[in-house]
Amino acid sequence: MVNKGIIAYAIIFVVIVVVSWFFLISPSRAHITTTTSIAGVNLSSTTTVIGGISTTTTNVTTTTINYGSCVSKAATVPIFNGNFSYGNYTGWMVNGYGFNDTQYKLHGPLNISLANANALNSSLRPNNATWRGYTGNFIATSYQGGLNLRVGNITSRNFLVTEPYLNFKVISPQSGELYVTILTNGQPYVTTFFNTYSFVDNQTQYPPATTFRNASIPLAGIICQNATIMVEAKVVGSAVNKLQYIAVGDFYMGKTAVATPGIVVNQTIG
């Protein structure tokens, strides 16, 4: 008589062999798993082949997104009160009198529309020329009329860097005492000096001392960090340097740089 236990073990063995052949050996049914990394995203694909017909299932798993997860989907991101449209320095800290003159009652940004229209007060317009190339009505400037150049700076509130460039408008001669600095944790990350006075516009011949140019500062190295903008003026007015001032505005972050070529004199990063 055949032992029933032996028969049971034999049946189990046969089942295991058949199942193994069906799933692991049979050329008509196979599982192939591949992993591909594209632009920081892992694509894990499982392909099942049954009777010569293949079906592929792809699972997308995000691992590391370039520049971090905070990058904005928008093309541009404004800086709070970056064009000073409030008519004051809301969102900015003012130190000294360089950007907040009291002699001409300019307790805040300069209203260039009023300055351009005010023919009786040409001291608010360098060389009696109108301000040009600006998209708003208010600018932050250390120009206060004539020889009244004073030291001071303005600093923006903290903002999260979500784009690779800071874009804005600027007027500045070449000077080691007029510049724009991006700070992180209170420390300078990038400092940029400009010279828009040397830019020659052969078509319009607008005076360089009152014509804004496009400026850009790279922020890619501090994506997803908090930063501040500081505009510095250290020039004291005299008969020689009465046009040694800086004027800025229209601050926003963007995915592309818009700087007018040739206006950056020096830029220090780190």
**Given the C-alpha coordinates, what overall shape results?**
globular
Low-pLDDT runs of 5+ residues are 17-65
Q: What is the string of helix and strand elements?
A: HEEEEEEHEEEEEEEEEE
CATH superfamily of the largest domain: Galactose-binding domain-like
Count of β-strands: 16
**Mean pLDDT level:** 77
Q: In what range is the share of β-strand residues?
A: 35-45%
From the structure above, extract its key features.
about 270 residues; mainly beta; 7-stranded antiparallel sheet; 6-stranded antiparallel sheet; 2 helices; 16 strands; about 35% strand; globular
Structure description:
With 270 residues, the protein is mainly beta. It folds into 2 domains: 4-62, no CATH class; 76-269, Jelly Rolls (Sandwich), CATH 2.60.120. It is built from 2 helices and 16 strands. Residues 17-65 have low confidence and may be disordered.
Give the arrangement of secondary structure elements.
Layout (H helix, E strand, L loop, with lengths): L3 H22 L3 E10 L2 E10 L2 E10 L13 E3 L13 E5 L13 E2 H6 L20 E4 L10 E5 L2 E2 L4 E7 L6 E7 L2 E8 L18 E6 L7 E8 L13 E8 L9 E6 L1
Antiparallel strand pairs: 1-2, 2-3, 4-15, 5-8, 6-7, 7-15, 8-14, 9-14, 10-13, 10-15, 11-12, 11-14, 12-16
Short account of what is shown:
This protein is mostly beta strands.
